[in-house]
Amino acid sequence: MNSHCKGEMPIDTENDIVMARKYVREAAVALGFGVTDVTRIVTATSELTRNIYVYAGSGIIRWHPINGNAAGLELVFEDHGPGIADVSLALKPGYTTSKGLGMGLPGSKRLMDEMEVLSEIGKGTIIRIRKWLKR
Amino acid sequence: MANGNISVIKIRDILLVTVPSDPDDCTVSELQEQVLSSMERHSAKGLILDISTVETIDSFFARTVSETVKMVALMGGLTVLSGMRACVAITTTQLGLSLDKTLTALDVDRAMELLSDTLNRSEGRK
Amino acid sequence: MKKQKNASTPKSLDSEENFRLLVDSVTDYAIMMIDPEGHVTSWNTGAEKILGFHSEEIIGKHFSCFYTSEALASGIPRNELDLASTQGRIENEGLRKRKDGTFFWANTIITPLCDEKGIIFGYTNITRELSDRKKADYTRSLIEASLDPLVTIAPDGKITDVNAATETITGCSRSELIGTDFSNYFTSSEKASDGYRQVFREGQVRDYPLEIRNSDGRVTSVLYNASVYRDESGAVVGVFAAARDITERKLSEERIKQQSQEILELSTPVMQVWQGVVAVPLIGCLDSQRTQQFMERLLDRIVETNSPVALVDIMGVPTIDTQTAQHLIETITAVRLLGAQVVLTGVRPAIAQTLVHLGIDLSGITTRSSLAAGLLVALDLLKLQVVNKSDNR
Ligand SMILES: Nc1ncnc2c1ncn2[C@@H]1O[C@H](COP(=O)(O)OP(=O)(O)OP(=O)(O)O)[C@@H](O)[C@H]1O
Ligand SMILES: [Mg+2]
């Protein structure tokens, strides 16, 4: 069953965002997340893969279960795009360099239990998010 | 999957549009086009966006919906967002998207009532 | 065949008398004879000295009166006689009771007395009080056998002795522990030294909570029971402290807490009070976790019952802070997205004051001071939405 919960896929086309949502949903359901948490995880996935598609052109998403003291799901979004100049600014609600709402990054952070953003101008961006299974 | 397959039904002067469950960005954009042209074609006064099968609403979807609501309003129409799932409502709120200028209803029935109520009232005022 | 009587007793009166004298002169051993049922039939000076009974007091009494009540309850005296009968002799160590009720550690040998046909007509019972050395060994083995960490501490706070359980729980060997400060082995050394000072001051402490830190970093929650112990002159020599591992208990306490939390949550019922109206009384403090669950349940119920109005009563919420208010606003927003509306009721004066002072804007939200007033609003809302109002006028 856990083989379901681990995987990766490249994000190259717009349709890959839909596929990523589908796979991540399956993984989250298989791990036993409730319907609201599944929706949260899938929504954050949608935001972050779309950011890859829009700002970096292409990238990769990986997901795997977290075991140990606390169980959960970790997802990593990696691209070799332009990078984010000011990460803390990008995490502010409403900040956007496109005509977006500027809610993708700050919203994903609120939806998940943990989020780390690593970004370097000209090199790319790695975003790691985690959700813990309650109880 | 219902993807790419947007159903538009006209009931009197109201358009009922059913949004597919997991639409890609293209479908969402297309939806906007299709809704606007149908509104014009049928000279509809009300629009019900039935999102009861939608499993995720992200910022792109939300932005397109609130844009569409504004555009429909500019064309003299009133939009009701109908049937949002509980888990989606929680997630959307937490994401920070309140869609606060949009009318909402629990299901299509209630959306119809709300629309005809509001439309009748504004009719009466004229 | 000739009959021979009492083969095992000396034949001549002389030797019988000598034997009597011999037995009587032995004062370090309690030597007694017991009949097959266990009644004492003879008693020497040693027995009088060790067990405290005069021979006229004890003869005819059952020998089980030398045993502890626990031993009696498990039928040990009878068993010993039976075992002696089948094995020809038994020797064991155990606690014995004196006439004055005090106990001592004894070595007992019981041998059956048989006639020439092999029929048992009695037993000899030789009981010896064990030496101090033996007693110390025994005490030591008891202490070692204890699963609870035991430790003795000198008045200066240095450890003077420990048992194996202490080695396990601290991860330090006996030699490492002895001579070091007792307080070194706890997460809070201050609290530990306060504890043993309290013992020296008050003579004892009970259920003193401390956390033992193992050398590998693990921490064990324990409760200490400790008291001073004295030398023969009555002077306090040190503290004897016994710890009880309460990790398990703590866990189950936590489990109970969690369960009562669950019960509390379950007892936050979302009731359908009218066709199209649900109501939920919020009771207690609203942390993020609880609000999350409350929000999910409320929204699910709204969808389930197809209710456009939800009455959320906060009468039972003792205090409200910015975070709680934020959670409430989030809930209200999410409910609106569903196509329903929250009417906030039970807003007490104190809560209203706090909300204004905190600068929390609830202006877009319908609020009422009582649930009844809220219900009126709800019905009004339903009329507006569902029923043509003019029909009702
Ligand atoms: N992977 C990325 N590579 C480069 N820049 C990024 C990346 N992700 C986000 N950004 C930058 O951070 C900003 C904020 O992103 P965020 O997702 O929060 O909002 P948005 O994409 O502009 O709008 P929304 O997601 O609400 O439609 C973006 O406008 C963009 O400048
Ligand atoms: Mg974005």
Outline the structure in words.
The complex is a heterotrimer of chains A (135), B (126) and C (393). Chain A is 39% helix and 27% strand. Chain A has 135 residues and is of the alpha+beta class. In chain A, strands 1-2-3-5-4 form a five-stranded antiparallel sheet, with helices on one face. In chain A, strand 2 (59-66) and strand 3 form a beta hairpin. In chain B, 48% of the residues lie in helices and 18% in strands. Chain B is globular, with a radius of gyration of 14 Å. Chain B has helices at 25-41, 59-74, 86-95, 108-125, and strands spanning 7-11, 14-18, 46-50, 78-82, 103-105. Chain B starts with 6 loop residues before the first strand and ends with a helix. The mean pLDDT of chain B is 89. With 126 residues, chain B is α/β, with parallel strands linked by helices. Chain B has one domain (2-121): STAS domain (Transcription Regulator spoIIAA, 2-Layer Sandwich). Chain C has three domains: 15-130, PAS domain (Beta-Lactamase, 2-Layer Sandwich), CATH 3.30.450; 136-245, Beta-Lactamase (2-Layer Sandwich), CATH 3.30.450; 257-381, Transcription Regulator spoIIAA (2-Layer Sandwich). Chain C has helices at residues 13-25, 45-51, 55-58, 69-73, 76-87, 132-145, 164-170, 174-177, 189-202, 247-266, 288-305, 322-338, 349-357, 371-385, 389-392, and strands at residues 29-34, 40-43, 90-97, 103-114, 120-129, 150-153, 159-162, 204-213, 219-230, 236-245, 271-274, 277-283, 309-316, 341-345, 366-367. In chain C, strand 12, helix 11 and strand 13 form a beta-alpha-beta unit. Chain C is elongated. Mean pLDDT of chain C is 82; it is low at 1-11 and 384-389. The B-C interface holds B 80-90, 92-94, 98-100, 104-107, 110-111, 113-114, 117 and C 295-296, 299-300, 302-303, 306-308, 330, 333-340, 384-386. The complex binds adenosine-5'-triphosphate and magnesium ion. Residues 47, 50-51, 100, 104 of chain A line the site of magnesium ion. Chain B: It comes from Candidatus Methylumidiphilus alinenensis. Chain B: Residues 4-115 form the STAS domain. Chain B: This is Anti-anti-sigma factor. Chain B: Pfam families: STAS. Chain C: Residues 88-142, 206-258 form the PAC domain. Chain C: Residues 15-61, 135-179 form the PAS domain.
